[in-house]
Write a structure and sequence with these properties.
The chain is α/β, with parallel strands linked by helices and 309 residues long. The protein is built from eleven helices and eleven strands.
């Protein structure tokens, strides 16, 4: 049987309790159609392979500097690596004794991915867990994901997809929906202009796909909308009220609020990237309980129950 060599995967994380019911294995795919300025996994945005450098793990041995064939590694570089020079040969990552340099993104076959996932099947069965496909955006890779989901369902494993909502619904309906138990979908900004400003694209396709998924619940799909709370961006009252009304219009009675986590900022420097909001004070702190409660109240006032993250 020929095996598909899949899209790039950032990591396969076992024993997760934060990405769906029970104990789960989470597959993080690389590549996303959005470019949210606060992306919690900035290393997942680009579909291609990248070089990651963790300065906290570096022991200063200079092995990478001596190895680099194009002189792209230097302590004088702002992020240690001159990414305009770097050819992504990964000689430095292969020889780094501290693991400070790593390849972000690895191609993997479905057979290899299944073998890794099935190590945790006893935990799925004992906890009501399963497999969550996340990213990035897993639905960028529908043929591969469809094949993976089919094999998981043949094993009786619960499947869940976390999506940005940017995908072709016709393909989703054929390739994904028959093999998916649950979909978590993010609603970030209700205003299309604001959405394009902060996420790179209008939200038109997202809202339309949301409506499709809400109707698909009649076919047995478990569908949960989520709202990431990003200080000063998604947490504005008019935005949350707009989302709450949209949920009501689509007969949604429950939403999950994802509390803000500033750890993405450290991830940015590892891949030599930046963000226009990285220097804002509120972006460098966790949200207060009071701030989260204020957001929660907006949905409760609209008659929508709220799940925390």
């Amino acid at each position: 049987m020929n095996e598909q060599q899949g899209p790039l995967v950032l990591k396969v994380k076992g024993s997760s309790l934060d990405d769906g019911p029970g104990i789960r294995t989470v597959v993080f795919f690389k590549g996303c159609p959005l470019s949210c300025v606060w992306c919690h996994n900035p290393e997942s945005k680009k579909a291609g392979v990248e070089l990651s450098f963790d300065g906290n793990r570096c022991i200063g041995c200079d092995t990478c500097i001596d190895l680099c064939p194009v002189g792209a590694v230097s302590k004088d570089n702002p992020h240690f690596i001159d990414r305009k020079k770097c050819t992504l040969c990964f000689a430095c990552a292969e020889k780094c004794p501290a693991g400070a340099l790593e390849q972000a993104g690895t191609a993997i076959s479905i057979a290899s991915l299944m073998a890794e996932i099935l190590k945790s099947q006893p935990f799925f069965e004992s906890s009501g867990g399963g497999v969550t496909l996340s990213g990035g955006e897993p639905l960028l890779h529908m043929p591969f994901v469809s094949d993976l989901l089919k094999r998981l369902k043949e094993r009786g494993i619960h499947t869940l997809i976390e999506t940005s909502g940017v995908f072709n619904f016709s393909s989703f309906e054929t390739l994904i929906l028959p093999y998916t138990d649950t979909v978590y979908m993010d609603l970030k900004l209700f205003d299309p202009v604001e959405h394009k400003k902060f996420c790179g694209l209008s939200n038109q396709i997202i809202l339309k796909n949301f409506e499709h998924l809400a109707k698909a619940e009649a076919l047995g799909l478990d569908f949960l909308p989520r709202v990431p709370l990003i200080p000063g961006i998604t947490t504005k009252r008019d935005n949350l009220e707009g989302i709450a009304q949209f949920l009501k219009d689509n007969n949604r009675k429950t939403v999950q609020l994802l509390s803000y986590n500033p750890t993405w900022i450290d991830k940015l420097s590892k891949i030599g990237s930046t963000s226009p909001v990285v220097d804002k004070a509120e972006m460098n702190e966790f949200m207060t309980d009071e701030g989260i409660e204020a957001c929660k109240t907006i949905f409760l006032s609209a008659g929508i129950s709220v799940l925390g993250s």
